[in-house]
Write a structure and sequence with these properties.
two-stranded antiparallel ribbon; Alkaline Phosphatase, subunit A; eight-stranded mixed β-sheet
């Protein structure tokens, strides 16, 4: 019997035909719906759902089924299709890596002008000029230095966020050091969707979780399907290509498919009612994505088919570079498979002491893999539409009370980009002669995020999401696109 033949009740329930939400609301006195609502961002649900795809070209009209991950048109032509963020959690010292300061070297050992209890600490590492662009790069990055003519240095980074890792690392990702907000990866995925429906659009490989990092990879008030999928949370996971919980231990693939098909069948009943709840829909779609990942993720994370030359290029099976080399190779494979935002992390840069030995150890671990990633992307023709971003949450002081260590500094530091439509062999901004504060081309987190979104063809003022009665955006009410770095 067709459902049109059933009498319609005043509460919208058709006898014998139950939608998913009606089942959750009415069965067992509605406790199932209460639990699910909490999982799917209860506050947004109680307000009647959020405004999805605000400012995006492909927003659907009225109700109906909505695949939140389908590719969407940008606001204007994009320079990059995907991003690989090389997150250096712990704050690398800019004056020992990519920001050469002759004045600091000349005044090493002298009393700091800002604090009589501190002395200027010259870099113990030699800088040289590389490439036709003549960029100054420390001896700590000899292999990255061979790509000097492909790098776009951002020497004027600064932030008002606290000079503390648990606040600054999430702020670098979300724009806020205090409130839980969606990650920049979530915003880009929300704005553009993903090219491969069988893979997550936002992946973080060996994420930094110990210093407030968990919220750095979450979707916040955006639907949960926009959160990052964490790949390899330990060295063992990375080496064995393990992805936690990739398979359901209780039911087989056939039973999972039947279960998901049933849930989606219920969902189709709301197609013409205009009452689709996008927060709940996001959770359902994340279940669907998890099912699809069981087949494709193991294939992407299996590097056994890579050539020996490629493994050697990334430093895999070498003691110092094996772990980060595998992360960078996985990043290239995910990028090649259509993942929109990939982050890899190395979290050993907090050198308050043992600067000389500590920085040498950290840079040896990442130098060859990063150079390999740039080489590999370029050889495959991917660098031109892949943006590579390198950097940490803040910088380091050029003065110190210790003879072999540097403290936190949010006043100025360096990040760099490559590919993705930015100017190659280019330096933008500057810190003062000691490397203390950004004095030119000053770029804070909001400016960085606005510029990143612009590279992806997204207007940071138009990419919004209504939550709590307000239209939120990644850049809050700030942010300036620094177009001078764009090719």
């Amino acid at each position: 019997m067709n459902k049109e033949n059933y009498p319609q009740r005043c509460d919208g329930v058709v006898p014998g035909v139950y939608t998913r939400r009606q089942m959750l609301k009415t069965f067992t006195t509605g406790f199932g719906y209460m639990a699910f609502a909490g999982l799917a961002a209860q506050a947004a649900i109680l307000e009647g759902g959020a405004k999805v795809l605000s400012g995006a070209a492909d927003a659907p009209a009225g109700g109906g089924e909505l695949n939140l991950l389908l590719p969407k048109k940008p606001h204007f032509p994009a320079r990059a299709k995907r991003i690989i963020f090389l997150g250096m959690e712990g704050a690398p010292s800019h004056v020992d890596t990519f920001d050469y300061k002759p004045k600091l070297q000349a005044d090493a050992g002298k009393q700091s002008k800002d604090n009589e209890d501190r002395q200027y600490l010259g870099s113990p590492f030699t800088f040289k000029q590389y490439g036709q662009s003549g960029k100054w790069i420390s001896e700590l990055f000899p292999q990255v230095a061979t790509h000097a003519d492909e790098l776009c240095f951002l020497h004027g980074m600064w932030t008002n966020a606290p000079a503390l890792h648990p606040q600054a690392w999430p702020a670098l990702h979300t724009g806020s050091p205090v409130f839980v907000r969606p990650s920049m990866g979530s915003w880009i995925l929300y704005g553009l969707g993903t090219e491969n429906q069988n893979l997550p659009g936002f992946v973080t490989i060996k994420p930094a979780l110990s210093i407030g990092g968990g919220q750095s990879y979450e979707s916040g008030f955006l639907p949960s399907v926009f959160s990052a999928t964490r790949i390899g949370e330990s060295k063992t996971d990375i080496k064995n290509c393990n992805v936690n919980n990739i398979k359901n231990a209780n039911i087989d693939l056939k039973a999972q498919r039947q279960e998901l098909d049933f849930v989606q069948q219920l969902n189709h009943n709301l197609l013409n009612k205009g009452t689709l709840d996008h927060q709940v829909e996001g959770v359902i779609q994340s279940y669907e994505l998890a099912f699809k990942m069981q087949a494709e993720v193991p294939e992407v994370t299996d590097i056994s088919k890579e050539s020996q030359a490629t493994l050697e290029l990334y430093g895999i099976n070498q003691d110092e570079t094996d772990d980060f080399g595998r992360q960078c190779l996985l990043a290239r494979r995910f990028a090649e498979a259509g993942v929109r935002f990939i982050e890899v992390c190395y979290d050993d840069w907090d050198h308050h002491g043992q600067l000389y030995t500590g920085l040498k150890k950290s840079t040896r671990a990442v130098d060859q893999p990063i150079a390999a990633l740039l080489t590999d992307l370029k050889q495959r023709g991917m660098l031109e539409d892949t943006l590579v971003l390198w950097g940490g949450e803040f910088g380091r002081t050029p003065d110190s009370p210790k003879p072999d260590g540097r403290d936190h500094s949010t006043k100025g530091w360096t990040m760099w980009m490559a590919g993705g439509g930015v100017k190659p062999g280019f330096s933008y901004g500057a810190t003062d002669e000691y490397g203390i504060s950004a004095v030119d081309g000053r770029m804070d987190y909001h400016d960085l995020h606005a510029t990143l979104l612009h590279i992806f063809g997204l207007d940071h003022e138009k990419l919004t999401y209504r939550y709590g009665g307000r239209d939120f955006r990644l850049t809050d009410v700030y942010g300036e696109v620094h177009s001078d770095i764009l090719a």
